[in-house]
Amino acid sequence: MSVRFGTGGWRAVIGDGFTRANIRLLCTSLAQQLQTDNKAQQGFVIGYDRRFLSREAAFWAAGTLCAQGVKVQLIDEEAPTPLIMFATSNYGLGGGMAVTASHNPAIYNGIKVFLEGGRDADETYTAQLESRADALEAAGQPLPELSPEEAKAQGLLTLIDPMNAYIDSILNVIDIDAIRRRGLKVALDPMYGVSKTALQTVLLTVRCHVDVIHDRHDTLFGGRLPAPNAGTLNSLRNYVSEHHCDIGLATDGDADRLGVIDDKAEFLHPNKILVLLYYYLLRYKGWRGPAVRNVATTHLLDRIAEDFGQACYEVPVGFKHISGKMQQTNAVIGGESSGGLTVRGHIRGKDGIYAAGLLIEIIAVTGQSLSGLWQEIEERYGSCEMTERDLTFSPAQKETIQNKLLRDRQLPDFGLPVERVSYLDGCKVYFADGDWIVARFSGTEPLLRIFCEMSTLEQAEAVSRKLEGFLHKK
């Protein structure tokens, strides 16, 4: 039970679960799986973020894989997760790995595994890795490892820098000329993470005026959670307001998620970012195709899709489900309410840097501010307000909640007509008027998450409180 994957890779507390021994167990099992799948000879890419032990862990991983005969290309500088996914695909490799715990607290680190083509490893694949790691641990045999010098000498380890190719891939698909004509003023907050080089280069290339905050290397992330949400972006909000910026952009620790402060210095919920992008691509760019969202993401996407004669598909939480459904349906966009999204034609995973470039393009091409375009969308499709609540619990409480909600399938009387209930991922109640509430256990943290979307914030909060009280009631 040393290595267990959640919805966003394997994550563990540094020095507890995230140890050299467990990293080597995982990488030995990964090498075996690559060989079984005949992918080992295609090569493998490894990158790492700014967290404590990330660089060291990347070399431990490389040495373990190389000792099993897997050729490794290592990005030996801080690398955004979407850059690593891009490299996996662009170089035609058999797989890839990001050493990161994404937006988790600073005491965590972890590993995200990518398959051929740069997509997130699915549950079937990660379950195989877990099983192999368990067997290796039970056997207790020494695991071979090569030093960086030995691996290089044997031609098994190569240091690479795919940053320019990645940046060019973004510049090639956004409207550079339109953005250059606007001369936009942008505030950038990497949240002490890894987005600065790539995102600042993109913004400066399209002639934006860019100011950067929180860009130094700090493994404690300034004492805050490296997640771009309403509670962590007060400094960026103040900067946008005081310096009259057109937009404020923030990325999480590994730059696959995006947070936005709009022209009114208000936090733009990730749901709104998804809606803005989908609406823009359909109405202003003339694209056609469905959208994909998870169970906890706004149904405004459904309304827009229907208006343009398209479909919107719902999947469980975990970006691997989104990217898989996008590939299956040739969807225009896929995303989640936590800030991750991707667009057709780019990498098959979340990319906060590319999403930021597209938002800049929206302002330039439409000639509107983000707040102005959002008003246009609300006038056309109505408004939705979402609340998010996180419940902590003891192991005993978790079992009680699981039994009540998922085994016995008990629910409170919400006082609203219910259309149907789904257990695709947790428990989701669809009300007859199109509103909904979902409760599910987090795959990355010990939390029960409740998301509720209604026409008003007051309604959403009232319905959420009713479910929370019911679940805690003995």
Report on the architecture of this protein:
The protein has 474 residues and is of the alpha/beta class. The protein is 40% helix and 22% strand. It has helices at 20-36, 54-67, 81-90, 123-139, 148-153, 163-171, 176-182, 196-205, 234-242, 270-284, 300-307, 319-329, 352-366, 370-381, 395-407, 457-472, and strands at 5-6, 9-13, 44-48, 72-78, 95-99, 108-115, 119-120, 157-160, 185-189, 209-212, 247-251, 258-261, 267-268, 291-294, 312-315, 333-335, 341-343, 385-391, 418-422, 427-431, 436-441, 448-454. Strands 1, 2, 3, 4, 5, 6, 7 and 8 form an eight-stranded mixed sheet that branches. Helix 1 (20-36) crosses helix 4 (123-139).
Give the biggest beta sheet.
8 strands, mixed
Shape assignment: globular
- The amount of helix comes to 25-40%
Number of strands: 22
| Strand-residue proportion | 15-25%
Unreliable sequence segments: none
Alpha carbon gyration radius? 22 Å
Q: How would you classify the helix and strand content by structural class?
A: alpha/beta
Average the pLDDT over all residues and give the rounded result: 95
Measured distance between first and last alpha carbons: 32 Å
Counted by DSSP, the helix tally is 16
Task: Throw out a few tags for this protein.
474 residues; alpha/beta; eight-stranded mixed sheet
